[in-house]
Amino acid sequence: MTWYEAMEKYENHPKWKFPTRKELIAMYKSNKDSFESDFYWTSSENRKYNLAWFINSGSGYAAKGGKGYALRVRVIRAF
């Protein structure tokens, strides 16, 4: 889904949270095997340039990209 779709779906969800870049990287580092080798959006964004952070789970590399691209989304439990 796009970053916009993920934000709309999880921004105010009562049980699930769209993770920040730091949260998703920590989750990836602690459990790499649970990620498919692909790109995953985070909720972290660069509003000045209308970009958002994603991670490449194949390499663990984080970068910014256009929010309209369809990437995977991995949510965490809200508390």
The average pLDDT value, as a whole number, equals 93
Number of domains: 1
Q: What profile does the largest beta sheet have?
A: 4 strands, mixed
Please mark out the parts with pLDDT under 50 across 5 or more consecutive residues, or reply none. none
User: What is the 3D shape?
Assistant: globular
**Helical content (DSSP H or I, runs of 4+):** 10-25%
Span between termini: 24 Å
Structural class by helix and strand composition: alpha+beta
| Range of strand content | 25-35%
Strand element count: 6
Order of helices and strands: HEHEEEEE
C-alpha-based Rg, rounded:
12 Å
Tell me what you see in this structure.
It is globular and about 30 Å long. The chain has 79 residues and is an alpha+beta fold. The chain has helices at residues 3-10, 21-30, and strands at 16-17, 39-46, 51-56, 61-66, 72-73, 76-77. It has one domain. A 4-stranded mixed beta sheet has the order 4-3-2-5, with helices on both faces. The chain has a two-stranded antiparallel sheet with strand order 1-6. The protein is 23% helix and 33% strand.
